[in-house]
Amino acid sequence: MPKRLTHEGAECPVARAVDVIGDRWSLLIVRDAFDGISRFSEFQRNLGLAKNILSSRLRELVAHEILEVLPAADGSAYHEYALTQKGRDLFAILVSLRQWGEGHLFDEAEPHSVLLDVKTKRPLRKLEVADAAGRILEPSEAFVRKVD
Amino acid sequence: MPKRLTHEGAECPVARAVDVIGDRWSLLIVRDAFDGISRFSEFQRNLGLAKNILSSRLRELVAHEILEVLPAADGSAYHEYALTQKGRDLFAILVSLRQWGEGHLFDEAEPHSVLLDVKTKRPLRKLEVADAAGRILEPSEAFVRKVD
DNA sequence: CCGTATCCATTCCGATACTG
DNA sequence: CAGTATCGGAATGGATACGG
């Protein structure tokens, strides 16, 4: 019986993270949540995904405490989905995905959306990996160590 | 006819990026490549995934120019997989995934691997989203603008 | 050692119909 | 509007067998 194996017991944090948000919809739902989307139909219309898939993904995100269900701000009978702190902490991941996509997945002059600073209306700084002192590191300047 | 829809034509760079690397294996293959893995069997043994899936994912990564095939350094008949510049630029994404996983997906004192600076042996700085001047931004301080 | 090919179960996902 | 239920096709993925 072939059972899908998960990485939830992995010692590598990347593997666990991929296990939680490494599919084709979860991060896009989170992206929309950052943009203020909170209702089922808004997600559905905005993303264009099937409702059963959206329902399933929302349940998973709530189970992982990335989203939480709130009792509806406008008095309507239905609830809303909002980011938790754990969900808001995905911000750097979304920004790094965005910057990589902007740099490598669009032709010159092809239209794409950009992320701007509210105050200055200027593009954000490029995310760079740095050491404790703030010096930018190349991939070869970092290494993985297992801890116990 | 239900056909899987893609985001390759999307104007949102996050959506395009998810389309390319948003599955359960691609980023883990890239992570291993950063660790110096270059041979088919090494990936396979290290990740524990089925060979047909690995084969398929490697082909896709090469097609997207994230990996490239090199003619084998040690003189053997087979080739090696190496990161391109586009692939190395995924570094910030992997580090942000790692840091989120470290912070939210492990119990206290549960063993996990860490990423250290080669020189100082100290943990890396936490990746933070910042404006052009370097000021750290909350998610609410950034907004998306469509450009044409 | 490096893959490809095939089989089969599971999962994903879109489409549609339906309920409150 | 906010979902749930169900269907069928497509993709995922593990296991195994096979060929270079």
UniProtKB/TrEMBL annotation, chains A, B:
Molecular function in Gene Ontology: DNA binding
Domain HTH hxlR-type residues, every copy: 12-109
Pfam families documented for this protein: HxlR (PF01638)
Keywords: DNA-binding, Transcription, Transcription regulation
Entries under InterPro entries matching the protein: HTH_HxlR, WH-like_DNA-bd_sf, WH_DNA-bd_sf
Highest taxon in the source lineage: Bacteria
Keyword Transcription: yes
Protein name: HxlR family transcriptional regulator
